[in-house]
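From the methods appendix. Each design record in this collection lists the discretized structure first, followed by the designed amino acid sequence. Records were kept in a plain field format so they could be parsed without special tools. The example shown here is representative of the layout used throughout.

RECORD:
C-ALPHA CELLS (243 positions):
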C-alpha cells in the first residue's frame, strides 16, 4: 500500500502500481498554514468543486487498475478549511472524509476503506462512531473501517491507549482491520494486535449491542464526550482532579 500525503500526482502514479493507495483528505488538496478562513456557503461549494476536479483523476485510475483506496483522516492534520468551519472536532474529521467519499460514490467507485485516527482515544472513538452513523443515514450503507490510535506512544501507555480506543470500537461491533501504532520497533506492534482481536476470534456468535446502531437505548450520547458528574469527597471528585 502506498501512503500518500501532499502530492496528488504521486498518488496517481502509485495507483497504477500498488494494490491500495491511502490519501489523507486533510492534505491531499488543501494546505495547512494554520490560518482562519471565512467562506460564504457559495464559496465553500466552490472549494468542494475544486476537490472534485483534483480527486476525480485518481478515482478513475483506481477504477481502471482495480486499485483499492483508503480515505484516512488524521485528527492532527485537518485542513485550515475544515478547521475554520467545524473546528478541531470529530465532526470535522468525519466531514473531511465524507467530502471525498461523496465524490467517489458519484463516480460509482466503492473499493474503499476509511479510517479516523487520532492520538486521543476519546476523539478517535467519537469520530468512528459518528462516521458510521453518517454513512448509514446519508448513504444507506457502511464502508469497511480500519481502526487505529495514531502515535499512541510506547510501553504500557501506548498499549493501554490502543486497547482503549480500538477495543471500545470492537466491542461496538465496528471495525474490519486494526493497526496498533507504537513508537517502538514495528515487530512489537503485531502481538498487541493479536491480543486485541483474540477476544473476538475465540467468541462464538458474537452479537454486540452497538451504540452506533441504536443510540436511543443508551443513557449517553455515543457521538459526544462529556465528563461524568461526581460528588466531591475530600480533595477529589466534582471539578477537582484526582492528583
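DESIGN:
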Amino acid at each position: 500500500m502506498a501512503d500518500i500525503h501532499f502530492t496528488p500526482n504521486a498518488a496517481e502514479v502509485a495507483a497504477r502500481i500498488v494494490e491500495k493507495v491511502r490519501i489523507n483528505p486533510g492534505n491531499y488538496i488543501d494546505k495547512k498554514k494554520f490560518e482562519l478562513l471565512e467562506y460564504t456557503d457559495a464559496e465553500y461549494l466552490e472549494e468542494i468543486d475544486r476537490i472534485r476536479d483534483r480527486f476525480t483523476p485518481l478515482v478513475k485510475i483506481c477504477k481502471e487498475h482495480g486499485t483499492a483506496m483508503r480515505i484516512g483522516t488524521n485528527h492532527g492534520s485537518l485542513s485550515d478549511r475544515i478547521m475554520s468551519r467545524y473546528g478541531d472536532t470529530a465532526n470535522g474529521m468525519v466531514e473531511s472524509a465524507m467530502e471525498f467519499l461523496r465524490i467517489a460514490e458519484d463516480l460509482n467507485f466503492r473499493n474503499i476503506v476509511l479510517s479516523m485516527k487520532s492520538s486521543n482515544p476519546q476523539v478517535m472513538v467519537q469520530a468512528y462512531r459518528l462516521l458510521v452513523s453518517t454513512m448509514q443515514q446519508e448513504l444507506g450503507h457502511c464502508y469497511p473501517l480500519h481502526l487505529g490510535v495514531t502515535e499512541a506512544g510506547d510501553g504500557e501507555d501506548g498499549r493501554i491507549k490502543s486497547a482503549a480506543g480500538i477495543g471500545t470500537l470492537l466491542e461496538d461491533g465496528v471495525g474490519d482491520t486494526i493497526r496498533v501504532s507504537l513508537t517502538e520497533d514495528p515487530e512489537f506492534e503485531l502481538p498487541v494486535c493479536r491480543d486485541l482481536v483474540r477476544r473476538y476470534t475465540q467468541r462464538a456468535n458474537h452479537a454486540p449491542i452497538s451504540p452506533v446502531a441504536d443510540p436511543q437505548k443508551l443513557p449517553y450520547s455515543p457521538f459526544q464526550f462529556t465528563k461524568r458528574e461526581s460528588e466531591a469527597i475530600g480533595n477529589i471528585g466534582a471539578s477537582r482532579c484526582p492528583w
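APPENDIX NOTE: Strands lie at 2-4, 20-23, 68-74, 112-117, 146-149, 177-180.
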